[in-house]
Amino acid sequence: MNPKTEFYGNLIVNYAKENYRECFREPDGLLKHPFIVPGSCYANELWDWDSWLTDLALREIAAPEEIEVYEKGCVLNFLEHVDAEGRMPIFISPRKTALTAFGEGEKNIHKPCLAQHALLIAGRDGNAEWLRDKFDRIGLYLGWYDRFCLHESGLYVWLDDFAIGVDNDPCTFYRPPKSSGSIYLNCLMYMELLAAAQLAGMLGKDDADNRYRAKAERLRAAIQEQCWDERDGFFYNVDTNLLPVDKTQNLHSGCPRHWSTLLQRIEVWACFLPMWAGIATPEQAGRMVEHYRDDRTYHAPFGVRTLSKMEKMYAIIKSGNPSCWLGPVWGVSNYLVFDGLRRYGFTADARELAEKTIALFGRDIEAIGQLHEYYDPETGAGVNHPGFQNWNFLAVNMFHWLQRFPPLEKTLEGPASPGEAGPSGASPGETFPDHRPPL
């Protein structure tokens, strides 16, 4: 490890150790259990994928006996607010939830990561008994996705562009309702179904285990069929905003459409998530990594541009509600792309991205003593929300990985098969702590 990476890595670890307790909250109002917030700027609000990924980072910093009650509380608080239809709120505050705050009508719910968060916790000791009396509520919320978001193509769609996490992703932002077959949403759902299956297995619910695995396999096949572009060697979001086939229309009846989606060839960072989720084949990963390495599109001095620099929508803008995902570097996107590279054995690329992320955050702490929400990919300057913590602490996970696995004399040149590399998909010899359910 070069001296600069080691210096910045230790700076980040020390910063995280000094500040991580700001993410802990005690029961308050509607939140009956202790929980984790993304950082001090989030007051007393529990958020869906933020709490999951913040917890993944905190587990590298905090002792299990200190954090367990807070991480379990995140899952239990959400499960206690599932309604009869299966709607689970995106956030919960002491006085309101997303379901009560934004009125009636179809709105997006908790992103598919609740079971993954529960499995992250249960995986520590292989014990999911604390979930037994509420496990059926996981089925309720997954069933809501099947009823309201499952498209004829086999993919899941967002109901609208409300609170999707990647706020102004142009593949969903300002698009018609139920028109976005998001690769981000579907990769999360694939891993969520596998996580639900594993939790069911831990609880002796074999029928649920088999059912969720079968659904995951159908979704994997749909992602391969609908989202993979053989021409470009890349996965994309898809457009589901097509008129229904009406065979009574004479002008169309001779050759009605036989496709259920259209590719959105827009290069957003989430196009790499099939590597994080283990959906890509090794051959596909080999083609995908060429997109990652292209300086004209994703590959930037400080990480992964969240939108290719060659897209017309590319912009580095200071904004909130929505936060900007039109090109700035985010800690979470850097981490998940890193994790996919690592999973498929692109060790040199994973190392480079980890080092860039550590330099990005280390420089910020060195200069102003805190972190930002997102950054300029060319200069590394913080763009918005100083004081942001959240998944930025995942830089600690990256730093620990660099410490555990020094460079090999011969770098792995091609993708390793996740199936051959062990349950985590790690390169041979690695034991990197893995939050993903096994393939």
Concise summary:
With 439 residues, this protein is mainly α. The chain contains 14 helices and 14 strands.
Polypeptide structure, described:
This protein has 439 residues and is mainly alpha-helical. The protein has a domain at 299-433. Helices cover 41% and strands 7% of the residues. It contains 14 helices and 14 strands. It has helices at 3-19, 48-58, 64-79, 98-101, 114-122, 135-148, 183-202, 206-227, 250-253, 273-276, 282-292, 331-343, 347-368, 394-404; strands at residues 24-25, 35-36, 46-47, 91-92, 180-181, 228-229, 234-235, 237-239, 262-264, 299-300, 303-304, 329-330, 374-375, 382-384. The strands form 6 sheets. It has a 3-stranded antiparallel sheet, with helices on one face. Strand 10 (299-300) and strand 11 (303-304) form a beta hairpin. The longest helix is centred in the middle third of the chain and has 22 residues, at 206-227. It is globular.
Strand fraction equals 5-15%
Radius of gyration, in Å, reads 21 Å
Report the uncertain regions.
Answer: 409-414, 418-433
Terminal-residue CA separation: 31 Å
What's the count of strands?
A: 14
- For the report, how would you describe the main beta sheet? 3 strands, antiparallel
Strand order of the largest sheet: 5-8-9
Overall pLDDT metric: 91
Structural class of the helices, strands and pairings? mainly alpha
Q: Level of helix content?
A: 40-55%
Q: Which outline best applies?
A: globular
Number of continuous helical runs:
14
Order of helices and strands: HEEEHHEHHHEHHEEEHEHHEEEHHEEH
